[in-house]
Amino acid sequence: METKHSSYSDEGLLQAAEYVEKPESQLKLMWETLRQNKAAVVGLIIIGLLVLIALAVWLSELMGKQILPYDPNFSDMSKGFIWPNAEHWFGTDQLGRDVFSRILDGTKISLSVGVAAVAISLSVGVVLGATAGYRGGKTDAAIMRLMDMMLAIPSILLAIAFMAALGKGLDKAIIAIGLVSIPEYARIVRGSILSVKENDYVHAAKIIGNKTSRIIYKHILPNVISVIVVRATLGISSAVLDTAALGFLGLGVQPPFAEWGDMLGRARGFIFSAPYTLIFPGIAITITVLAFNLLGDGLRDALDPKSRIK
């Protein structure tokens, strides 16, 4: 009888296991939800193409080869202001440089600045927000008042102030854009931690003697990572816009390197005589920002259990 009872128990466990949802199925459900969102798929495809272009241009530079139709930094004044044609798809600028090649080359800079700036703001913002949300009290008050002071100033003005202190250049632009975005991540992480730090599993981690840092980074943050991922995706689009704004003002990437905002800034004097020199860089900025926004919205739905497909 004991053997029979044991056999029934084993069969019951196997049947119950069939109804237990495996971790892989959650990832599959997220992907299916994202795939059903046509706008998010379009954004993902565009971002994939932009990443491929940026990687191809970067690798070609490392290998000393030229894969672009023309050298994006080579000027020929005799070919200045050639309207779009079969030879120069997007025309040439005032210095005779091929606009199409410069836009492709600028993809590398815009994406690299966006990702690097978000990495800086995300790493610092997560630490500050997690510390403020978990510790509370005076620590929370001090950190969040500093964040409020930074948020009181428009981000572009604050970035210009940082650029004035740091100087011009690509690396300075990355630091400036990364710094102005820290308060957003700090506030999001703090709010998320406040909503989960009183859960039972956090109290259990305290009882068994886990250190504060381990509780935050091993037990709390993994449960709020979806909010951080969505904000980081949207943050890249904001960083691309800020990069273009600084470039437009002449504070970002310096000549002769191609950057979409800098191209707009230098072509604004030819808006009537050669409007294509502004239109194409503007379209590149718009498409890139739109793609990251569409993907961010799709990720928000895919990572939210209430919004997933059944």
Description:
The chain is mainly alpha-helical and 310 residues long. The protein has a single domain (33-59, 92-307), classed as MetI-like fold (Orthogonal Bundle). The chain contains 13 helices and no strands. This is Putative peptide transporter permease subunit: membrane component of ABC superfamily.
Brief account:
This protein is an all-alpha fold.
**Whole-number tally of structural domains:** 1
Helix content: over 70%
The run of helices and strands is: HHHHHHHHHHHHH
Task: Give the radius of gyration.
Answer: 25 Å
Q: What characterizes the major β-sheet?
A: none
Distance between the termini: 43 Å
Compute the average pLDDT: 83
Number of helices: 13
Please state the second-level CATH architecture.
Orthogonal Bundle
What is the overall silhouette?
Answer: elongated
**How would you classify the helix and strand content by structural class?**
mainly alpha
Topology (elements, then pairings):
Blueprint: H1 2-18, H2 23-36, H3 38-63, H4 99-135, H5 137-151, H6 155-166, H7 170-180, H8 182-196, H9 200-207, H10 212-220, H11 225-248, H12 260-267, H13 276-303
Helix pairs in contact: 2-13, 3-4, 3-13, 4-5, 4-7, 4-8, 4-11, 4-13, 5-8, 6-7, 7-11, 8-11, 9-10, 11-12, 11-13, 12-13
Keywords:
310 residues, 13 helices, elongated
